[in-house]
Design brief:
Blueprint (H helix, E strand, L loop, with lengths): L7 E6 L9 H9 L7 E9 L4 E8 L4 H10 L5
Antiparallel strand pairs: 1-3, 2-3
């Protein structure tokens, strides 16, 4: 049984403004995504001219069990 997860990495695609953006600009874009509001989100990498952004999702309230539930509810894990 999984008791807690510290973080999850995901890849985001489709933010057109991210194509030529810096990591800092990508962080601002990702911070404005409504579906990620209940996570702490940190941009890890940005592949310029591709639109792909690698991000880490952390539990916002440090509740790792709620984090697992949120990830399941949002479809990131089964």
């Amino acid at each position: 049984m999984i008791r807690g997860i510290d973080f999850v990495t995901i890849e985001i695609y489709g933010l057109m403004q991210s194509y030529n953006a810096t990591i800092e600009e990508c962080q601002i874009l990702v911070d404005n995504i409504q579906s990620l509001k209940h996570y702490e989100v940190k941009v890890l990498n940005h592949q310029q001219d591709t639109g792909y952004i690698d991000v880490a999702l952390y539990p916002k309230d440090n509740n790792k069990r709620k984090f697992i539930k949120d990830l399941k509810d949002d479809g990131y894990i089964d």
